[in-house]
Design brief:
Length: 428
């Protein structure tokens, strides 16, 4: 707990970042009044669980891993139930006409298969990931001791080395072969960050750390339950359907937060949404040369039916649960196949481009029925190498959680950044 004069706090955005910020603010400043604003009519932002036939379909953020300390800490402290995502071990890489790699359900066998095919490249990639994991561990320690602008913490730990360079340059400098990059690494990064050519180094590395760090999890009742739970636990006033249009610094050093409906003065404000998407006007405040990044779209289409194994050239065997793709399979970046009752499966196809129903031609024996389609118009930044991250502290008590996002976008980084900003507010 902090001794600090914070009486009322506005949080802009009810995604995992904003809800974590409200949660940590309640923990460290028990008496503060917290108000969370979101322009949408729901809590969750880029986390969205849809229940189809008793199966949770995660349309946005899907997995977190055993290395995501902040998220795991919250899940444990709140007694929430998580489930290991076993399907993750059952994957293949499809080049549009055949599988170029198929995992074994036992990960040790998969590693042996990868070693046999790609030899030193796998070992070199593991060594690189071990180094990056060490730096991330240092980031957690440093953030706890010295909460500060996230860019500064990245520099202190050496992690900035990675986001300054293109990912594929980092890999080739380490001697990772082109075949391993094309057939294994690119299919993984294609799913997470659709674009690839000039992908920033830390975005690419963090997608691999997820795979390298053992078990992956999601919330047993759907990931959407996490931000909803945190908003509730924070005891904040949640104002949904209220877009923040303007933030103005007053002569007293407080902040007037304007929505279409009202204006309220707060002594502290946390912005928990990328400024690129927020459309907020700032008065009497400087954004310190902040430069907007372009964002990329992700389209998802889900259908249900009796899966036809011949679609992937299989005879009668089950298809892998997850099929990643090489660029020959453009514009499809991933198939996810979840069994439901009656011998049917739910198949989700993801792409950075709009998908027509025809994209499912041949997937089902019985034609299949549409379940849903969803478009994330701004899923994540088009990750390019970045020389400097935006400031976390925009003004004395005006903080910016998404300052980390030009480097990496994940539930964990939004949650960690939320914890960091609350600690920064406690150090004033
Ligand atoms: C398809 C997809 C798959 C993903 N997969 C994974 C994964 O497997 N694992 C993982 O860790 N991450 C994944 N991510 C990334 C992860 O979803 C995000 O990094 C994370 O959810 C971001 O949370 P946030 O709270 O920072 O931002 P957001 O979730 O974007 O929340 C911001 C909120 O602010 C609101 N808002 C914006 N402007 C205003 C305003 N002016 N006034 C009021 N409210 C405003 C928005 O409506 C939104 O609800 C994925 C993302 C996508 C799109």
């Amino acid at each position: 707990m902090f001794e600090c004069e914070m009486a009322n706090l506005a949080v802009v955005g009810a995604g995992i970042g904003g809800c974590s910020a409200a949660y940590f603010a309640r923990k460290y400043f028990p008496d503060v009044n917290v108000t969370i604003y979101d322009s949408q009519d729901r809590i969750g932002g880029r986390i969205l669980t849809y229940n189809a036939d008793g199966v949770n379909l995660e349309l946005g953020a899907t997995f977190f891993n055993s290395f995501n300390r902040t998220l795991l800490g919250i899940v444990k402290a709140e007694g929430l139930k998580m489930t290991p995502v076993k399907e993750r071990a059952d994957f293949a890489v499809w080049n549009g006409s055949e599988f170029v790699f198929r995992s074994n359900k036992q990960s040790s066998v998969t590693i042996l298969k990868l070693l046999a095919k790609y030899q030193l490249s796998l070992a070199r990639t593991f060594l690189l990931l071990r180094k990056v994991r060490g730096q991330v561990a240092k980031l957690y320690t440093e953030e706890t001791k010295n909460p500060a602008d996230i860019g500064e913490i990245f520099e202190f730990t050496g992690l900035d080395e990675w986001h300054k360079k293109p990912f594929f340059e980092v890999l080739s400098e380490k001697g990772v072969s082109q075949a391993f990059i094309d057939e294994i690494i690119t299919p993984i990064t294609r799913v997470i960050y659709s674009q690839n050519a000039d992908l920033g180094g830390f975005a690419g590395l963090s997608s691999l750390i997820g795979v390298y760090s053992g078990a992956t999890y999601s919330l047993a009742e759907g990931n959407s339950t996490l931000p909803v739970h945190l908003a509730k636990a924070s005891n904040a006033t949640v104002k949904l359907g209220q877009k923040v249009d303007r933030i103005e610094k007053t002569s007293k050093g407080t902040y007037s937060v304007y929505t279409g409906e009202d204006m309220t003065v707060f002594d502290s404000v946390i912005i928990a949404t990328p400024l690129e998407l927020a459309d907020i006007e700032f008065d009497g405040l400087s954004l310190h040369g902040w430069e907007p990044q372009p964002y990329q779209a992700v389209y998802k289409r889900v259908m249900r039916g009796v899966f036809d194994p011949s679609y992937f050239g299989l005879k009668n065997s089950d298809p892998p649960a997850i099929v990643l793709t090489t660029k020959d399979a453009d514009p499809i970046t991933q198939y996810s196949i979840q069994k439901v009752s009656g011998g049917e499966s739910l198949v989700t196809i993801s792409s950075p481009e709009p998908l027509s129903k025809n994209v499912f031609n041949g997937v089902f024996k019985n034609g299949g029925v549409s379940v849903l389609e969803h478009c994330w118009k701004a899923a994540y930044p088009v990750f390019k190498p970045v020389t400097k991250l935006p400031l976390t502290r925009i003004d004395k008590r005006l903080m910016y959680i998404s300052a980390v996002e030009p480097s990496v976008s994940s539930m964990e980084t939004s949650t960690l950044s939320a914890l960091n900003v609350v600690r920064m507010l406690g150090r004033i």
